[in-house]
Amino acid sequence: MRRVPAFGPRTPGLPELVEGLFFFFFFFFFFFVQQRKEVKGFDRLSQAGISL
Predict the structure, then answer these.
(1) Which of UniProt's keywords are assigned here (predicted)?
(2) Looking at the whole model, is its pTM more than 0.85?
């Protein structure tokens, strides 16, 4: 069997993983900014984390 480069085009799931992590980071950052605009931003964020 021929070896496949670590970051080669045939690596399964790598593009999906990078895109998923980037989207998750962007969504979390946007959510944090929206919560930060409120007076009790950190309290609401902590309550949301506990409820989840």
Answers:
(1) Membrane, Transmembrane, Transmembrane helix
(2) no
